[in-house]
């Protein structure tokens, strides 16, 4: 049995390594596959312009495509053209995987009032890149109605240390702190493997987020204390930097109840455990 990972970057590689440790053959698709670890058989391909070769015994497909830049053109090429080429290649090879999972984003919820969001909340993406991600979800379900979409919150982990670097550089607290939502990369990868391998058929949609949807100021204050830095000052400018940076994430409380109801267990249930491990140097950054 083979696991095919379309978009074998940092997250996809971690997923592939976890499947490989469980004894599965893993094929990873990425533009430059020579950088992949030996446990993953690489296929160098630009999915936005070419259809991949599909192993005939493919049982699971993970679509973890990412855009090369934050432009609309790059998102269309990755999420729409890339997904279409993958699905067309599956059809051409007459391969019907047992399960398919698409990694999406909670950015498809443009919600800014601090309300609770779960899988029943209608998506309302803003025009632009967020709408393209949602279009990819709809394309997948139109072609493979039983596929699973996992909408991940902000991923942090090895090599994803933006917030830590901001605190070290003297970040300030926001006068109006929005709720923030996140998931450690290792938990995101573990959730993907868990959903694909569990005996019960996965739902069509899950939110991938940890147990702590909290105001951003709380996380910044925690990191400053862990780093041994002085208490952070309040940003009194007209438009605080933290507010400008957080606008894409909106202000919402994401629920992971449906994911937890599958008996999934987080290694890093909140930002505290995750960032402490990150500060201690735990984990590996993948190419």
Written description of the protein model:
- The protein is α/β, with parallel strands linked by helices and 287 residues long.
- The strands form four sheets. It has a seven-stranded parallel beta sheet with strand order 3-2-1-4-5-7-11, with helices on both faces. It has a two-stranded parallel sheet with strand order 6-13.
- The chain has helices at residues 10-21, 72-92, 129-143, 162-168, 185-197, 216-226, 241-246, 257-260, 271-279; strands at residues 2-6, 25-30, 41-44, 58-63, 99-105, 115-117, 148-152, 154-156, 179-180, 182-184, 205-208, 214-215, 252-254.
- It has a single domain, classed as Rossmann fold (3-Layer(aba) Sandwich).
- Helix 1 (10-21) crosses helix 5 (185-197) and helix 6 (216-226) runs parallel beside helix 9 (271-279).
- The longest helix has 21 residues, at 72-92.
- This is SDR family NAD(P)-dependent oxidoreductase.
- Residues 4-201 form the NAD-dependent epimerase/dehydratase domain.
- It comes from Cryobacterium suzukii.
